[in-house]
Amino acid sequence: MRKAVVLGGYGLIGAACMRALAADGFAVSGIGRSRRSALASNPEANWVIRDIPLIDVAEWKELLADADVVVNAAGALQDGGRDDLEAIHVTVLSRLVEATRDLPMRIVQISAAGVSPGASTEFFRSKARGDAILSEGAQNWVILRPVLVLSPEAYGGTALLRGVAGLPLILPRVLPEAQVQTVHIDDLAAAVVAAARGEVPSGLVADLCEPDEQSFAMLLDRIRLWQGFPAPCFRPAFPDAMLRLVGWCADVLGHLGWRSPLRSTALRALSDGVRGDPAAWHGAGGKPCRPLAATLESLPANRQERLFARFYFLLPLAIAMLALFWCASGAITLIDPARAMMILGGRDIQAWIAVPTVLGGALADILLGVMILWRPSARMAAIGMIGLSVVYLIGSLMVAPDLWLDPLGPMVKVIPSVVLAAMVALTLEER
């Protein structure tokens, strides 16, 4: 049985490639750094849990010793708290080429349409450097360059499109000059299988895209129609300056570990246009990619799809509100701790208990409010908020039950924040 190894096997593209290769009879192994994400993607698959940029040449030789094809679906959009473009797009290819120089296998590189050494973003430039290393050093290779990938799974840019298109009442007008082409995830995965089977020649560099292009505004309209939402009542213009501000804010969040599709690299790529030329793929005998209308027709547009679209922007809003609520709660207490201690003192609580309780609680509130903004600790912070809120509620019943009857309802108002934190903890998934 032929064996395929897929780098980044639990990503949007990598997971589709693993399914398609397995369906075609390959014995497939996936490589990625997160065991949790790997098992969530495909618990039955064979996984090698490694941080791909840290694998050296010797380990690559060991991992790929009996492989017939390697598919590189690993990548990152922008440098950030967890990503290094040079490492993942260039260093990995350099080591991979060195390790496979004497091995009889094909390397299928999934790049991106529009890459070039002089491109407007480091994403495209680093991808171009990796492609060059592969084409100059490997013996048997194919480089596939997809445009905007549409899939039943919502992730990254495709998730953002769904969220924007599903906004209630409004549909903002952004990037009026941008032209976009799309490719169905199954067409991309089929192209990878064709390359893995040797149905296209070595040395092929091909864009994978639908035959026509459309404006970004038209793409949003067609996705909204596909989702089943009514036409928007308002189409406010979104100035370029505001878009740059959004990109800058998303870049800052990127350094906190959040891989937002609103980062400046994605916005710049959309602004430049996401287009390709299918001529090379067709010339090599590749099956044409379906147009946007056929892609949308083949994707589910059900209740889950509409709920996701409407919920897309509520999750970051919920995280921001929780961070503000908990930080403000702790800060207000620290501004006037004596007042808080008086509340406990008036209920015969000893000072040696009241002081650490008030100050410790305030510091814990601020810590949780900050932790939820850091992506690796966000879920833990949300769970901590639930736990600490329960402690506050139980403590108030034991020490100050009269607070539950206060006309302003200070304790009752804690309960909605518990529900909000639970919602964040349960829905905070990347893949």
From TrEMBL:
Gene3D superfamilies per UniProt: NAD(P)-binding Rossmann-like Domain (3.40.50.720)
Membrane listed as a keyword: yes
GO terms, molecular function: protein-containing complex binding
Protein's name in the database: NAD(P)-binding domain-containing protein
Keywords: Membrane, Signal, Transmembrane, Transmembrane helix
NAD(P)-binding domain boundaries: 8-154
Coiled-coil spans in chain: none
Extent of the signal sequence: 1-22
Keyword Transferase: no
InterPro entries in alphabetical order: ComplexI_NDUFA9_subunit (IPR051207), DoxX-like (IPR025695), NAD(P)-bd_dom (IPR016040), NAD(P)-bd_dom_sf (IPR036291)
Pfam families the UniProt entry points to: DoxX_3 (PF13781), NAD_binding_10 (PF13460)
Membrane-spanning residues: 311-332, 352-374, 381-399, 411-428
Domain of life: Bacteria
